[in-house]
From TrEMBL:
Organism: Meganyctiphanes norvegica
PANTHER family the UniProt entry points to: REVERSE TRANSCRIPTASE DOMAIN-CONTAINING PROTEIN, REVERSE TRANSCRIPTASE-LIKE PROTEIN WITH RNA-DIRECTED DNA POLYMERASE DOMAIN
InterPro entries: DNA/RNA_pol_sf, Rev_trsase/Diguanyl_cyclase, RT_dom
Name under which the protein is recorded: Reverse transcriptase domain-containing protein
One family name in Pfam for this protein: RVT_1
Span of domain Reverse transcriptase: 1-101
GO terms of biological process kind: DNA biosynthetic process
Gene3D superfamilies, sorted: 3.30.70.270
């Protein structure tokens, strides 16, 4: 985790990660998310990431890098954020691990996408049930193994207000 990175930098490169910033990051495979509470804190975190990647000879794809500012309304006049000498695009929505995240913290797009895909999966197994005259137990098993995982992917973030559409689906 982050403490391992801090120890590694301190022991091998005489670098104090804390001297840059206290970083809050989410790491999954080759994806990195940096969380910051201010524009200044974010730029410091980007600078620390740039230094870390330079030391370890890692390349950052700035074209794939995005910034999303969470607020109730769209924000204009945000400062430019620089990584490896390039400006990072600021976006209103971002897809992370297959889930669409919006600037306002709502997951309506993610929920609608999962509902659409689940309806397609359900339609597919319904047609197979009719065509092959599958017994109910096999049909239910197909529902549980094909439709349900699609429907519920990312549902942890939908919130209570969005759960009604799940109930209607069933």
């Amino acid at each position: 985790g982050l403490s391992d990175i801090t120890s590694l930098l301190r022991n091998n490169f005489d670098m104090e990660l804390e001297s840059y910033i206290e970083l809050y990051v989410l790491l999954f495979a080759d994806d990195t998310v940096i969380l910051a509470e201010s524009a200044n804190e974010l730029q410091l975190a980007l600078d620390a990431l740039q230094d870390y990647c330079r030391i370890w000879k890692l390349k950052i794809n700035v074209d794939k890098s995005k910034i999303i500012r969470f607020s109730k309304r769209r924000t204009k006049n945000l400062p430019n954020f620089i990584l490896n000498g390039e400006t990072i695009n600021i976006v209103d929505t971002y897809v992370y691990l297959g889930t669409t995240i919006k600037f306002n913290g709502k997951f309506v797009d993610a929920k609608n996408k999962q509902l659409f895909q689940a309806k397609r999966a359900l339609s597919s197994i319904r047609s197979k049930k009719e065509k092959l005259q599958l017994p109910l137990d096999i049909y239910m098993n197909l529902f549980d193994t094909i439709v349900l995982p699609v429907l519920l992917y990312g549902s942890e973030v939908w919130g209570y207000e969005d759960s009604e559409q799940l109930e209607i689906f069933f």
